[in-house]
Amino acid sequence: MGFARTALLLAAMTGLFLAVGWLVGGQSGLVIAFLLALGMNAFAYWNSDRMVLSMYGAREVDAEAAPRLHAIVGRLADNAGLPMPRVYVIDNPQPNAFATGRDPRHAAVAATTGLLELLSEEEVAGVMAHELAHVKNRDTLTMTITATIAGAIGMLANFALFFGAARSDDERDNGMGMVGGILVALFAPMAAALVQFAISRSREYEADRIGAEICGRPLWLASALARLSAGAERVENRAAEAHPATAHLFIVNPLHGRAMDGLFTTHPRMENRIERLRRMAIEKGQTGPWS
């Protein structure tokens, strides 16, 4: 169900992008928009992982530099049937983590020093299992494509605002004028953001579910999420605040001033995520926190 929902939302995002391209430039605008999206996605496909790791000053660690974390990731990767990803540590006091990479063979998982100091070994395993679930589901590629298309829609919407009124009235393939340009500029980016956030929330629920299966203990992840959420609220992540477009990558929202589980949030409400994991634990006959 999660994959079907994501595919439907991606189709909606693509359709919106092509529609905006047509509104801005007719058939030629649609073709130009399509080529623009291909170029942007190709660049993001090959470079997004290096960009985001560099953005947060992540340093790669091996079994000697971070033995506990490296061993946990190795065991979980075996459980998930995945190649061993590269492991990174971010010197940041906010407890958080994310995964990146275009496919399982080029994947990386990153944890902050705040997370490693705060969580128990079982809770770290729950978090890393969640991140490996994103790798297994290729969510990092999905969200990169989604963010790229959303950014392209914003660019096209700006073109619509500035050039919509300049189009001649007798042009057959597009009758958009000043009013149409303003409407596209206002509502297209908003619609793209709604779809992007819906995809992000859908993938988080799915990663929680599969991550719980990878580590075998849903309550490990549930306990970790509760502690991470409280920690993220107390500790500011300045790098994330400077790059809010990357917030969807993290296991918990790294930004302060977050709203409830509404339309414009990248993560599901924490209470909902924890409740789902608790129900999974009950179905497995697990009642204690480490059972």
Brief summary:
With 291 residues, the protein is mainly α.
Jot down its keywords.
291 residues, 6% strand, elongated
Low-confidence stretches: 165-175
State the end-to-end CA separation.
Answer: 29 Å
* SSE class: mainly alpha
Helix content: 55-70%
Describe the protein in words.
This protein has a four-stranded mixed β-sheet with strand order 1-2-4-3, with helices on both faces. 65% of the residues lie in helices and 6% in strands. It is built from nine helices and four strands; from the N terminus they run H-E-H-E-E-E-H-H-H-H-H-H-H.
Give a topology summary.
Layout lengths: L1 H54 L3 E3 L5 H14 L5 E5 L6 E4 L7 E5 H6 L2 H17 L1 H25 L14 H38 L2 H17 L3 H5 L27 H14 L8
Parallel strand pairs: 2-4
Antiparallel strand pairs: 1-2, 3-4
